Amino acid sequence: MQLYSARSKASHPNLAGELSNSCSGLRGCVNPGRIGADIREIDADFQEALRKMANPYAPPQAVVTDVVRTAGIVRADPGTRLGAVLLDSVIVAAMTMLPTGVLFALAVAMRSTQQESAANVMLAATLIVFVASLGTWCWLTIKYVKENGQTIAKKIVGIKVIRTDGSPASLGRIFWLRNVVNGLLGVIPLYNMIEVLFIFGDARQCLHDRIADTIVVKA
After folding, report:
1. Looking at the domain assignment, is residue 27 inside a domain?
2. Which pLDDT belongs to residue 2?
3. Residue 50 within any structural domain of the chain
4. DSSP 3-state assignment of 62?
5. CA 122/CA 112 separation, integer angstroms
6. Is residue 217 within a helix (H) or strand (E), and if so which, with residue range?
7. Residue range 196-217: average pLDDT?
8. Residue 90: closest CA among 146, 149, 147, 156
9. Per-residue pLDDT tens digits for 74-120
């Protein structure tokens, strides 16, 4: 045994020193704090995996965003919108008030000349024409609004109403929010004048557009 030890020392005189240095280097590479952090991270991932496995029927957790379809949309200028409003007024008057007014004037003229029976017939015809013409105007307006967010005049001048995200505006949104609610607010003094002035802003939205979350664009 002593002979082996003597031979080892003779063949490797620095063996003890090298082993000592190697162990010291190994202790320097091992960081107990880092090992603890890795263990805690692995434990946290394991706990999260267990939580997800606890309810396999749970809905997926994801962030859902609306798809905005605004590419290629050109907003209608104030002049075109004003022209459409005026044209709609002319159209509804021409379709309903004009023929009704003519027939009613004839009925009054007949009554003034003692043509009672003819006047009564003419009054009945006046009522029938008024209901028929008004019904036709309503049918066309509802049809165009449902199809493409357009009134008769908007269809003629080439503009339409859509949502601010580019999606179609429903008939209910246009009727209730853009018209009924806005009409009720019209009882407020100066409201109608002020709400129209908003069209000159960068967004080109009147107050009724903002209420209904709509914009008017070129069709």
Report:
1. no
2. 45
3. no
4. coil
5. 13
6. strand 214-218
7. 93
8. 156
9. 999 999 999 999 999 999 999 999 999 999 999 999 998 888 999 99
pLDDT category, 174, cuts 50, 70, 90?
A: very high
CB 160 within 8 A of CB 219: yes
How far is CA 17 from its chain centroid? 77
Q: 92: which 2 tokens? A: 């509804």
Read off the DSSP letter of residue 96. I
In a domain, 25, yes or no: no
Q: With 70 as the cut, is the pLDDT of residue 190 above it?
A: yes
Count Cβ neighbours within 10 Å for each residue of 120-156 and write b for 16 or more, e otherwise: eebbebbeebbeebeeebeeebeebbeeebbbbbbbe
**Structural domain containing residue 146:** 78-218
Domain assignment of residue 84, yes or no: yes
- Three-state SS for 6? helix
C-beta atoms surrounding 76 within 10 Å: 22
DSSP code per residue over 179-206: IIIHHHHTTSTTHHHHHHHGGGSTT---
Instruction: Please give the share of the chain, as a percent, with pLDDT higher than 90.
Output: 62
